[in-house]
Amino acid sequence: MRNFKFISYIDCFDGRHPKVMVPSRQPHNEFASLASVPNTLGPAKTY
């Protein structure tokens, strides 16, 4: 898929992966599980 990018909460590539986007850190409640991370990141953008 062209122009596909991953969104990750943890930057395990230290910013060096061209297809991974890590949002800036913002205050939030503790995550109950990894499944709750997308809800914290906000709605997905449609292009």
Low-confidence stretches: none
Helix content: 10-25%
Strand content: 5-15%
Order of helices and strands: EEH
Strand order of the largest sheet: 1-2
* Largest beta-sheet details: 2 strands, parallel
Total number of strands: 2
How many domains?
A: 1
Total DSSP helices: 1
What characteristic shape results from the CA principal axes?
A: globular
From the helix content, strand content and strand pairing, which structural class follows?
Answer: little secondary structure
Radius of gyration over C-alpha positions, nearest whole angstrom: 12 Å
Through-space gap between termini: 14 Å
- Average pLDDT, rounded to a whole number, is 79
Describe what is shown at a glance.
This protein is low in regular secondary structure and 47 residues long. The chain has one helix spanning 37-41, and strands at residues 6-7, 20-21. The protein has a two-stranded parallel ribbon.
List keywords for this structure.
47 residues, little secondary structure, two-stranded parallel sheet, globular
Overall description:
The chain has 47 residues and is low in regular secondary structure. 11% of the residues lie in helices and 9% in strands. It contains one helix and two strands; from the N terminus they run E-E-H. The chain has one helix at residues 37-41; strands at residues 6-7, 20-21. A two-stranded parallel sheet has the order 1-2.
